[in-house]
């Protein structure tokens, strides 16, 4: 995962390629602690730009497929560094087979809040 970068749409456009899936982390407060971990199945740059109002720092990694993007997000969520905020939630996968977290083996259905 690349980062942290200081969030700006200019920076996002400079470092994140167009129309590629990928995983990302966001923080509103600290470059040391990730508050949101998620992925985009189609366009990481567009998804990051969507968070322009709230994010101050971001991390990202580009993937070849939506599934790879999900796995990268899971790996990032479970990795000890950088630290994850206590409120950070596991990346949510779309329903369906093949979306099992490679680290904790949870499925999308188990991660949806009741
Ligand atoms: Zn997991």
How does the SSE layout of this entry go?
Blueprint lengths: L1 E5 L2 H7 L6 E6 L5 E2 L1 E5 L3 H7 L6 E6 L3 H13 L4 E2 L23 H4 L3
Parallel strand pairs: 3-6
Antiparallel strand pairs: 1-5, 2-4, 2-5
The protein binds zinc ion (ZN).
Zinc ion binds next to helix 3.
Structural class: alpha+beta
Shape-level CATH architecture: 3-Layer(aba) Sandwich
How big a fraction of the residues is strand?
15-25%
Radius of gyration: 13 Å
Helix fraction by DSSP (H/I, runs of at least 4): 25-40%
Care to count the β-strands? 6
In the residues, how many domains can be counted?
1
Q: What overall form do the CA principal axes indicate? A: globular
Largest sheet: 4 strands, antiparallel
Which series of helices and strands comes N to C?
Answer: EHEEEHEHEH
Distance between the termini: 31 Å
Name the hetero compounds present: zinc ion
What would the average pLDDT be, to the nearest integer? Answer: 92
The CATH class turns out to be Alpha Beta
Low-confidence stretches are: none
As laid out across the biggest beta sheet, the strand order is 1-5-2-4
């Amino acid at each position: 995962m690349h980062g942290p970068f200081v969030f700006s749409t200019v920076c996002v456009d400079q470092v994140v390629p167009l129309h590629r899936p990928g995983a990302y982390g966001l923080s509103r407060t600290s470059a040391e602690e990730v508050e949101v971990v998620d992925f985009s199945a189609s366009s990481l740059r567009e998804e990051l730009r969507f968070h322009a109002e709230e994010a101050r720092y971001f991390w990202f990694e580009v993937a070849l497929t939506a599934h790879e993007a999900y796995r990268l997000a899971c790996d990032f969520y479970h990795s000890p560094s950088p630290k994850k905020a206590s409120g950070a939630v596991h990346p949510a996968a779309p329903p369906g087979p093949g979306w099992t977290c490679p680290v904790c083996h949870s499925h999308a259905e188990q991660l949806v809040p009741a």
